[in-house]
Design brief:
It contains 17 helices and 22 strands. The chain is α/β, with parallel strands linked by helices. A 16-stranded parallel β-sheet has the order 1-4-5-6-7-8-9-11-13-14-15-16-19-20-21-22. Strands 2-3 form a two-stranded antiparallel ribbon. This is F-box domain-containing protein.
Length: 547
Amino acid sequence: MARVPDITDKNRDQIMLRRPAFSPKGRSFKGFNLKKGLVDTNAARSRALKNPLVLDLIFGNLGLPDLKTSRLVCREWADVGAIVLGKRAFLQVNQLFSCEWFKPVEMAPVNDKLIRRVLISDKFDSSIPTYMKTGVITIALTQVAKLSQLTREIKFLVSQKEFVPAFLEGIRILGSTKIQHVGIFSAWKRDIASTIPAEACQNLPPQPSLTSLKFEALSHLQHDLITGCNEFQPLIQVWLDAAPNLTSLDVVTSFYPNLEACTSLRVLKFKLIMCCNEHYPHLNLANVTKMLAQVKDSLVKLELCHRVNDYDSMQQIQSAEEVPVMSKLTSFAIDAGEVYQVRDFYNEEHFPKLRSFSVQKGLKLFSHLNLWSRHRGVHSLVLIIDYVSEEQEFVGKMVDLFPAVKEFDLRLDLTVLTFTGDMTTTMFYYEPSWTSAAIHQFMKPFQMWDLERVNVSVEVQESALLIDALQAISVLKGVKRVQFCFPCKDNTMDNFSATFQDVILHCRTFKSVEITRSEFRVEPEIVEQMQLMIEASGCAHLFYRKK
């Protein structure tokens, strides 16, 4: 941070009365007192630099490392700086405690404004012996003054299960708090002897202020040889049952949490992981629909994801029970739809208010779309394609299924390679999956939509394909923006320069065309040369940036 003058009360008068070197001695103007004018000017500047609104803007432009190391020279600066830092950074409270030989654990003083966001981790002061660490977790939660009233967010990040009971015990001692967000994250170390005791997951005091919960607790290699992943279910359930006003839930689990108590839940992000086939050989779709049925009348936004590699070998079980009607859902995103093959669900009847739909990844997108019936309410669609499907007709099917789309976001990877070799030999051959003809064929059906806005992001390696993509996208209706990202490649500059005039020709129908280079180190001369070429072209909506 740049050096700033000391404007504390101690030095303020000296600064205000300092005569400027250029001022002629004794020079005066009628009705104007030079000394008084300097005092008024400096006083106004001093007041401005103590204005919380001004300081908030100044500190807001500092990076977190600079904000942490800034020397704040007066009380007003320190107060506002602490508030800004408390909003942007986590305070690692268990590192505030130290221990000396034969002395109890002592806590370092801390500004109240810094405890807005609190981190509980398995990183302790070096003076804390191993046998005392679990106790420090509880002490850190209960002995930090005003934590229950001033803290708004707690992040629990450890790699050992033994700290879970201490964490929950600390919350019980605190009682009902003003905490609004809780995040539980971990990649547990493999420890067959260590489990989370059932008695540790007793009911927590009601947390009426808690509105957001994020949970991602994965054991080593995503499973435990003894317990599987089910031991984490009580850990998340005690939080769900204690939060009657929960509105947002983001979970990565191998089980299906009970959401019966979440009557106010509006946002659900559910990511399914599979521990291993011996524990979870099948995907029970009835459990998925049962979980959704518990929040069918409150949910507004739903995201279904997965981290399952061998889904082809999984049997997806769906019972005869009716699937729920998601009466208020307006936004739905599904990642790799081949995992959630729920029949008689994806239609206007069960998603009557759906307006935004997002689908991504998956080699069997066409099979997922076969589960849909026509939905005329979807106005916004996001499509993420990172492969070339042999079933290119899925694009036409998508246009038919969602005929009323007005806003279209597309992410396309044109760098994908297709294996063309013989697996029986030691020689492997790959060739580009995307060709000029494939790009035009892929984009053509989207011309049928009466679009108002189009945003396209393209990973591209050859400038020739960039031109093809520009041509194919340019015929779509609506206001169009496109971003091309080149990977790290030595000949990117020459590659692009050769087709620069073609880029200029085709980009004029776009609101903006941005070209970025995905490189850690880009020669300044290349960036400068590209910018000069763009400026000389007079194309105001073409941009070149380093990513």
